């Protein structure tokens, strides 16, 4: 089984029954983010980027399933820590090239308001926040 297929199967299991803000199956988000990056490790990290945060999976579960260390580190960095400010989180992401590439793709997809039928003020504020994050990570 390829690393992509392994990561996809884990992501599908982790996000089963979840939907995004538009009510669409959540797995579509990590699959789309993976389509925006290159290389097997980048695609695996993209597929897994929300697994720890949004499911009962732990990094040890990913390790036990055969996910390589570089991908585990990126996923760990991409998993928000409630003890860090958003800026501290972005600084951590920026320090790891793999995590940074995935986060930029994630922010790009999350900024696409065409996915939401009737965007609200909070949606536009969130996109503004994401645009600043993209600028910071790209600098």
TrEMBL record:
Organism from which the protein derives: Enterococcus hulanensis
The protein's name: HD domain-containing protein
Pfam families, alphabetized: HD_4
Signal peptide annotation: none
Top-rank taxon, per record: Bacteria
